[in-house]
Amino acid sequence: MARDLNKVMLIGRLGQDPELKYTQSGVAVVSFSIATGMKWKDQEGNWQERTEWHNLKAWRGLAETVSNYLKKGSKVYVEGRLETSNWEDENKKKHYKTEIVIDELIMLDSKGSGDSGGNGGQTYSSTKPAGKTESTNVDDDLPF
User: Fold this and answer.
1) What angle do CA 83, 88, 92 make, to 5 degrees?
2) What is the Rg, in whole angstroms, of the alpha carbon atoms belonging to the chain?
3) 3-state secondary structure 1-30
4) Is pLDDT at 114 greater than 50 in this prediction?
5) Beta-strand pair 94-107/47-59
6) 61 vs 5, 73, 111, CA distance in Å?
7) Do the strands 75-88 and 122-125 form a parallel or antiparallel pair, or are they unpaired?
8) 123 phi, psi to nearest 5 deg
9) Which helix or strand (DSSP H or E) is residue 38 part of?
């Protein structure tokens, strides 16, 4: 039996400070965007650049972590899934918005640099209770 897969993995920088809100039942949700870029040489040998913007959101403890530690310009690795919502405006016109719902996040800014509160290399997951994090600092595993 074939299984479906809805997985997104990105490395990019936040385009603005995260916006934290709470649902009526008190559940934290944060929204923000990150930019990813690519460069290539065109047929004339000139460098070209393209930036793609991605809308993201996180829930519960992960939302509060994002709000507390990330800011515009922070570099992050995110894993998540695509989720599309739709609604109608007052003119009955249908609108769609696709976002990445984050399951895992790693802050990539270096420790002690002042960026992101110095939490570089820390992994945060939406599946772990708030405050329970797992460090995946690769430098600790290197033999040199």
Assistant:
1) 150
2) 18
3) CCCCCCCEEEEEEECCCCEEEECCCCCEEE
4) no
5) parallel
6) 25, 22, 22
7) unpaired
8) -100, 135
9) strand 28-41
Q: Which CATH architecture has domain 8-37+51-138?
A: Beta Barrel (2.40)
pLDDT at position 134: 42
Determine the pLDDT at residue 128.
52
Q: Which element (helix H / strand E) includes 35? A: strand 28-41
In angstroms, the CA 35 to CA 52 distance is 6
In whole angstroms, how far apart are CA 70 and each of 16, 26, 39, 119? 10, 21, 26, 10
What is the reported pTM?
Answer: 0.74
32 is written with which tokens?
């923000």
140 vs 27, which has greater pLDDT? 27
CA distances from 39 to 9, 36, 48, 51, 83 (A): 19, 11, 6, 9, 28
Distance CA 55, CA 82 (A): 10
Q: How deeply is 117 buried, as exposed, middle or buried, from its count of CB atoms within 10 A (0-12, 13-18, 19+)? A: middle
Pick from 142, 123, 121: nearest CA to 133: 123
